[in-house]
Amino acid sequence: MSYQRSDWLADLDLLEGAVALWWAGRARHAELDGTDPGAVFSALRAVEPAGDLWAGARALRGGLWALGDCHLRLAPSVMGAETGWQSGLAFAPTPEGPALLWADPAISAYRAASVGDLLTAIDGVPAEKVLASLRLRPGSTPRQRHLFALQSLSHRDCLPGEPPLPRCLTLTDARGHDLTLAPEWRTQDPAAPPPPAVRARRIGDRTGLITVRSFACRDRTGQISDAEMARQLDAALAGLEGCDRLAIDLRGNGGGRDEQARMLATRLTGAPLVWMRHAHPAPYGGELGRFEDLILTPKATPQPSGLRLLIDAGTASTAEICAAALAALPGAALVGSPSGGAVGDPVEFRLPRSLLGVFVPVARYARPGTDAPIEGAGLVPDIEAAPGAVDLREGRDPVLDAALASFD
């Protein structure tokens, strides 16, 4: 596709106007991060895409990252030109540093690595220095940015002309021995069946664990399905009949559809619940309106006597709204580490010349009963706990352990 400088400038003009009118987090991130949209767009206008649409897309992606809002980012292209790559590796943040969480056992080069090994270098550069510089996906808080940088070692959606990186990782085991391996990047299989969004298991007679990995539940065909989410939730709760103490694991849940999160909440509360406290811009953009409360109608009979909501930096967006609402219930508590701090109701704007899409978050949210913003702050747990590298090595989950202990 031919893409000239005049096209680039026309797209930037439209996007800068949309950001000025609709970006609900602009004042928040100016305060937190010192972001300056005017300076970002001025720098973007100096870019010369040289007839290459994807060079412009890469520059735009970096400019949006610099504005510091998780939901202000490129959308998938209408041409489906991105290529999804997976390395077969996953890492988790720990107090000791990034640690190996999983390695695909089918890849022989990974068999010398062990869960809990620390990531110490990326392409020969200290790992933390590289992770601080990776700018592939915006994050709303430093902890979320760090997590997204780690996730980019597992999965990347690369634009045309962009290879999956890195090419070399150095891991250090518990004895201080180094292992160097090359990630085996493989294209993602779009036909692979989606994993369940909801899992459940009993822990004793009265206690149950429900893990909700996403509020974008998909059916067997890969389509996002509210009906499938309802089916999975009902099956999970049916298997926990008689449990009046529930731990809801929202760690790593990056959000999804508000409708699916409400399905979970209505099944856990027996009284009307303030679901979200939100403010949107006036029609045609402009100043944000006052906060309003959205009340949720309950379905649970009876309501659990104890509720623990497990959160971490990967808990974001709709999952944070859900956790904040349920934490207000009697007998409820947040357990884990601070959440991602990224909520915003993103709306897609399609640029007229390139047809690139950009998500712009158009709403702000506060924790129910307060005017304290969730964006850029997140939810602070009532009970703090986080896994270390030794916990990963030995298969322990101190967050779940703390949640269960708090029931007694």
TrEMBL record:
Cross-referenced InterPro entries: ClpP/crotonase-like_dom_sf, Tail-specific_protease
Transmembrane regions: none
Domain Tail specific protease: 196-386
Pfam families: Peptidase_S41 (PF03572)
UniProt protein name: Tail specific protease domain-containing protein
